[in-house]
Design brief:
Helix content is 48%, strand content 11%. It is of the alpha/beta class and 348 residues long. The protein has an 8-stranded mixed beta sheet, with helices on both faces. The longest helix is centred in the middle third of the chain and has 23 residues, at 184-206. Residues 339-348 have low confidence and may be disordered.
Length: 348
């Protein structure tokens, strides 16, 4: 695909806008779709998405639109960037407007709350004619830094390596380095599950428990999300990579992380309702905590940190008590079930 290629980016939040700008600077013709016409008009008038990425101008090659059919007309690549809970409805709406054989890239990090499916599974179910051309882009990537050209590394995963390489070429710039990975299960789960632990790390910081506690929690978080991911069919080494450890560290420690910010507010005494009502952004980790708990039960995997966070978020448990519960669990060896097999069925 050369310059002038039509690309549709569906979802004009921070991440969708940043990726549209990145692709636009490479000379691709990008149509950036948003649901609200008045929002689109504001972006056109200002030349930037002031609601999500203030101060970042959009190149002339990016055309904002609220017309889904117009956005998708002739698109050779479709980038899907809605909140994860909106992915299914967006794909359903988009289906009649998709023609040809475009590459479809999911950039949403979450799990469908009803079916517990990963985003690529939702896309495949809603767009079955395009099942073999779905990829997932994930990694330690804050939209604001990508949009400003700061050095960033990411990974694109697909069971079809050729599709992953096409996406790699389309997105790669001197400041945005893209790796490929055939393990779409692990890449998607790493991107989704780390949001749980970003909230938990924020709680630890909000309680003022110190650097030791933060480091310990992040380390145990990596063990937990890898344990669940491997039980669900992911490759173990994926969790040592960009979509695993990389994204986990960034989201748990970065000041731009809204999941970490949610945890900080919880640790500071605010209720979940107060926190969610004060932001226009989706805190993906809240819904993912519910989904992960259900997945863990099905896979017969224990997630102590995620389980305590669930109780804080939805059952009124005090954050301080949750920390105490984790610290006073029965003592264990550090080397847990890190290989495939029946070891996953043992109590932790």
């Amino acid at each position: 695909m050369g310059n002038g290629t039509n690309i549709a980016v569906l979802g004009a939040g921070g991440w969708g806008t940043a990726l549209a700008a990145l692709l636009g600077t490479k000379g691709y013709r990008v149509r950036l779709w948003a649901r609200r016409p008045e929002f689109v008009e504001e972006i056109r008038r200002l030349g930037e998405n002031r609601e999500y990425l203030p101060g970042v101008g959009l190149p002339e090659t990016v055309e904002p639109t609220a017309d889904l059919g117009q956005a998708l007309a002739g698109a050779r690549m479709i980038v899907l960037s809605p909140p994860s809970q909106a992915m299914r409805s967006l794909c359903s709406q988009a289906a009649p407007h998709i023609s040809g054989e475009p590459v479809i890239v999911s950039t949403s990090k979450g799990i469908d709350p009803e079916t517990l499916q990963r985003m690529s599974e939702v896309i495949t179910e809603e767009l079955p004619a395009h099942a073999g051309r779905v990829a997932a882009l994930s990694g330690p990537n804050f939209a604001a830094e990508v949009a400003r050209g700061k050095p960033t590394v990411t990974v694109v995963a697909s069971a079809n390596l050729q599709q992953a390489e096409v996406v790699q070429e389309l997105f790669s710039t001197p400041s945005f380095r893209v790796y490929t990975n055939p393990d779409i299960i692990g890449v998607e789960l790493g991107g989704a599950l780390k949001n749980i632990y970003a909230i938990a790390t924020g709680v630890v910081d909000g309680l003022g428990l110190g650097d030791n506690a933060r480091a310990g929690l992040i380390t145990r978080a990596l063990a937990e999300l890898a344990r669940l991911g491997i039980a669900l069919g992911a490759e173990p080494l994926t969790f040592a990579g960009l979509a695993g450890m990389g994204d986990l560290v960034l989201t748990c420690t970065g000041n731009l992380s809204r999941n970490r910010r949610c945890g900080l507010q919880l640790g500071g005494g605010q209720s979940l309702e107060e926190i969610l009502s004060s932001t226009n952004m989706v805190v993906e980790g809240v819904g993912t905590t519910k989904a992960a708990r259900s997945l863990a039960k099905k896979a017969r995997v224990e997630l102590p940190v995620a389980d305590q966070l669930y109780q804080v978020l939805f059952e009124g448990l005090s954050p301080a008590v949750a920390v105490d519960n984790l610290m006073t669990r029965v003592s264990k060896g550090e080397l847990e079930e890190v290989v495939r097999g029946d070891a996953f069925l043992k109590p932790l």
